[in-house]
Amino acid sequence: MSDMHAVEGVLFDIDDTLVDLETAMGRTLHHIGAETLAHLSVAEWAEYKRLYTRDPHGYYNQYLAGELSFTEQRVRRARHAQASFVTEPLEGESAHRWNTAYEAILPLHFKPYDDVVPLLDALDEAGIPYGAVSNNVHDYQRAKLDKAGLERVAALVGIDAVGVAKPDPAIYLEGARRLGTSPSGTLYVGDNPAIDAEGADAAGLVGIWLDRGLHTGVEEFKGRRITSLAHVLQFLQEIR
After folding, report:
1. CA of residue 171 relative to chain centroid, distance
2. What is the per-residue pLDDT across 49-101, written as a single tens digit (0 to 9) for each?
3. A Pfam family in this protein (predicted)?
4. Based on the structure, what is the number of domains in the chain?
5. 70-82 vs 92-105: helix axis angle to the nearest 10?
6. DSSP H or E stretch at residue 24
7. Count of beta carbons in the 10 Å neighbourhood of residue 151
């Protein structure tokens, strides 16, 4: 790490980095499926949640590419996840009711991970600016951060800020610009090894993969890896 610049600022991904979206989605799915999916075993519930949250067909990526609306990607994920467990497909009015319930319940479960606030406190104490760069639109993610009690994450770049999504370099660079930091002096921390760590590296930032155990098949990853945001503090101490 001796070739790295002093840390000027830190940017974060939001979903499953700052906010525990995996748990929030799982609890929401269980709440709104309590009647229609009451017959599922514990193992089947786990598989249903896995299919929805991990999105194996890449519907969210289709949303980022402009091929689906935000609601469409969500409903398609739910339809695919439910296909093995119900006979009636999630379509039409039932899909509308499902999405309305999902939108109402999900924000109630937005919580930060336990390692978030201590790190932000330490960054504040050290005078290191921080913010977030997300593959979703600004207003939706702003509301999510606020609901999770993370109003202090003031600098926020969404895909509508520059018209592109990660891993396009422009969105990371816009984050550094808003912090007033140089790309090479800016850490970018996220839960996706490719989009977050490698994407930030390619943009000239210092990418760090926060491995929360949500990604498989990443044995070939050779970059910087941590398993808790608490490790960012050690990282700062090592390279400042």
Report:
1. 15
2. 999 999 999 999 999 999 999 999 999 999 999 998 988 889 999 999 999 99
3. Hydrolase
4. 2
5. 110
6. helix 21-32
7. 10
